[in-house]
Structure to design on (174 residues):
């Protein structure tokens, strides 16, 4: 029975079943728009949930050619460590979210932030994993502010924030 539930959870991920239609993430552009919408709404919790799921991480564990031991052992080790890893990732993304909010609020109100463009770097494939960077070109009080999602990931379904989260991009963009 456990195998049936695990298979169903993996299939739900593969075919893009989403629990949160408020912030869609089926493409890198949608992830960018969703991060922007959550930022503008000051919805820290929503951004913290935009990470890879446990089942997606297990797919990466299974694909890792450098992993030692049998699949069952690797999965058990991962499952044991995942709650703490997830908390660490969400805490890090939450801190970055707070920093970005603080930087934007120093220039004006979050509600006045406008999204001008979502720019997606070429997508790199690494097995089932797809990786890219996303730039959100925004404007606040006529000043352009670039937000960079440092690593966006997808494994056969929705796009998610990588562990590096996002920040204000200080380099010349174009």
């Amino acid at each position: 029975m456990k195998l049936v539930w695990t298979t169903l959870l993996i299939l739900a991920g593969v075919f893009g079943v989403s629990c949160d239609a408020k912030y869609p993430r089926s493409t890198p552009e949608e992830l960018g728009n969703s991060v922007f919408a959550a930022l503008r709404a000051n919805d820290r919790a929503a951004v913290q949930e935009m990470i890879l799921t446990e089942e997606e991480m297990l797919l990466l564990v299974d694909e890792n050619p450098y992993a030692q031991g049998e699949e069952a052992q690797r999965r058990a080790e991962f499952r044991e460590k995942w709650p703490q890893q997830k908390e660490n990732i969400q805490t890090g993304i939450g801190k970055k979210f707070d920093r970005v909010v603080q930087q934007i609020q120093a220039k004006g109100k979050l509600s006045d932030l406008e999204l001008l463009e979502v720019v997606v770097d070429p997508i790199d494939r690494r097995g089932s994993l797809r990786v890219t960077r996303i730039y959100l070109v925004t404007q606040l009080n006529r000043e352009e502010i670039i937000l960079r999602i440092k690593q966006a990931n997808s494994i056969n379904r929705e796009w998610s924030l990588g562990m590096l989260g996002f920040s204000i991009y200080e380099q010349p963009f174009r």
